[in-house]
Design a protein that fits this description.
- The protein has a six-stranded mixed beta sheet. A four-stranded antiparallel beta sheet has the order 3-4-6-5.
- A hairpin with a 4-residue loop joins strand 16 and strand 17.
- The model has no long low-confidence stretch (mean pLDDT 94).
- Helix content is 27%, strand content 23%.
- The chain is globular.
- By secondary structure, it is of the alpha+beta class.
- The longest helix is centred in the last third of the chain and has 18 residues.
């Protein structure tokens, strides 16, 4: 994993930090295995043991488990919940979750165990926002510390979760240990250590050499090697990410103008229909990915079964390009129009072999259609800077999503073109925006239908080619017994993992001297 950077929940950016802090701290309730986020159905109680709504759904009262305690022995109270919201929303702190919490006006305290949330308006994500967007923090530890100091140097974590924080050797490892008297039950593992390995090769080598027990980002090409290690096995989960070839719809040299190629919807559609996504996925990922149905994943209950993207159809694609005046020219067979060749550069990260292979295959498929693609392999940060500054023509990217489909607003709607958004290709369609807003505001019974309508609009506009929906491949030692895993967060049941006493090795045992 990468070094977590911070273990202070409001400021977390990296997945590794999320994995660790979700063991140390608790939500009021967490998203369940079904990944429903449009109501409170299926949520797992954590700090809250029950809740009730007002008749107008603008008030939500959480009753806290009276046995819940902070790791220093103090009781968890409703005051902690109230303090947590105020801290997360504090503009001085500048946390990442302020957008998700904007609909929560305030939290009031009716007694020591009852925290009442008051909302600005009714939305399907109200329960998610209140229950599972904030890890609850201890007011008695943090409230007297200036907020700007918390941003620079937060104190060591004191949580209420089933694991306690033990040590952080920055750049090397983070260790947590079981909270032996936890109100939700002692974790079945004595301790868990996250080992920092910023490079993929280093991380996978640690697993294969026996220096690590779990690695959650194996690639297809590692499977053959894993099978040679009798002490290892893999778990394959449905993923919550998708890869795509994104077009920049604005001219990189002058964003006030449409892109000379990709500003044309028909060009984008023709390119999309020229790419055989099924063969790409099979060639690069074998059975460890599927072709996406749009800018979403099948893990979400809001993804409809009838949703389709533009088909692979070289006859229609060729006819469309011909009608636009892009004609094949001998002897190269490349298409051109008014003396200009139909060609574009495609950015791909040099750090991911699967994406490089996909780029090469796309290059060859489009060459057969008379379209020249120049692959430009870049270091990850350079590529992401080009995307974020809109100084690219086309790029292979990937979005890994959370438990909710709400992220589509920041990735593909007009609102995502703002400074806070990540709509790097500048796709904008008012009908799509309106349908996304309608879907996000819908109850579970209607959300899927409206999300499907929204995705069909963007699929027809083809601001990107949806390439692959990868599965998560976790490599782990056979002595480890896992519990049910959520597609977006395999670690959500980590406290219920176990190792039989007879199979434990030295590092499994907690040393009293550390």
């Amino acid at each position: 994993m990468a070094d977590p950077g911070t273990l202070f929940p409001p400021l977390i950016v990296f997945t590794s930090a999320k994995q660790i802090t979700e063991q140390i701290y608790d939500y009021l309730a967490d998203v369940g295995a079904t990944m429903n986020t449009r109501s409170d159905e299926g949520f797992r109680p954590q700090l809250s043991d029950r809740w009730r709504w007002s008749s107008d759904s603008l008030m939500l009262a959480f009753h806290l488990n009276p046995r819940a305690k902070w790791h220093d022995g103090r009781d968890v109270t409703a005051r902690d919940v109230q303090f947590t919201l105020s801290l997360y929303k504090n503009p001085v702190l500048g946390g990442e979750s302020r957008t998700e919490l904007a609909n929560i006006d305030s939290v009031t305290v009716t007694d020591s165990l009852t925290a009442v949330f008051w909302f600005h308006e009714r939305t399907p994500s109200q329960f998610l926002d209140a229950a599972a967007q904030m890890l609850i923090l201890p007011a008695h530890q943090l409230e007297k510390i200036p907020v700007d100091s918390l941003r620079e140097a937060a104190p060591p974590p004191i949580g209420s979760g089933r694991f306690r924080f033990r040590a952080w050797n920055k750049g090397a490892s983070v260790e947590i240990v079981a909270d032996t008297s936890n109100y939700r039950g002692r974790a079945r593992l004595d301790r868990v250590i996250w080992s920092v390995a910023p490079e993929f090769t280093t991380a996978v080598t640690k697993l294969f050499s026996g220096d690590a027990d779990v690695f959650d980002a194996l690639r297809v090409e590692n499977q053959a090697t894993l099978q040679t290690h009798s002490n290892l096995r893999s778990i394959v989960l449905q993923g919550t990410g998708y890869g795509f070839m994104q077009f920049n719809l604005r001219d990189p040299a002058n964003p006030s103008r449409p892109h000379p190629l990709f500003g044309d919807r028909n060009i984008r559609r023709a390119i999309t229909m020229s790419i055989d996504r099924n063969s790409l996925v099979k060639s690069v990922f074998d059975t460890f990915a599927v072709v996406p149905v749009g800018p979403t994943t099948r893990a979400y209950p809001t993804t409809g079964p009838r949703l389709v993207q533009l088909p692979f159809d070289t006859v229609r694609a060729g006819a469309l390009l011909d009608s636009l005046g892009w004609i094949r020219r001998p002897p190269s067979g490349m298409r051109s129009k008014n003396g200009r060749e139909l060609a574009f550069p495609l950015l791909v990260t040099m750090a991911n072999m699967s994406r490089i292979r996909m780029g090469v295959l796309i290059q060859e498929q489009l060459r057969r259609m008379g379209i020249r693609v120049d692959l430009d392999q870049l270091e990850v940060r350079t590529l992401e800077t080009k995307r974020a500054t809109h100084t690219f023509d086309a790029a292979i990217g990937v979005w890994f999503l959370g438990a909710s489909p709400d992220g589509v607003r920041q990735t593909w709607t007009t609102a995502g073109m703002s400074k806070e958004g990540v709509n790097y290709g500048s796709y904008s369609n008012a009908a799509f925006d309106a349908m996304v807003d309608s879907a996000l505001g819908s109850d579970p019974a209607h959300a899927r239908e409206r999300f499907t309508a929204a995705y069909q609009i963007i699929n027809d506009d083809a601001p990107a080619v949806w390439l692959y929906e990868p599965k998560t491949i976790i490599g782990l030692h056979r002595r480890i017994r896992t519990a049910p895993m959520r597609p977006d967060a395999w670690w959500f049941s980590l406290a219920d993992w176990s190792i039989r006493p007879s199979e434990r090795i030295l590092r499994d045992r907690l040393s009293p001297h550390r």
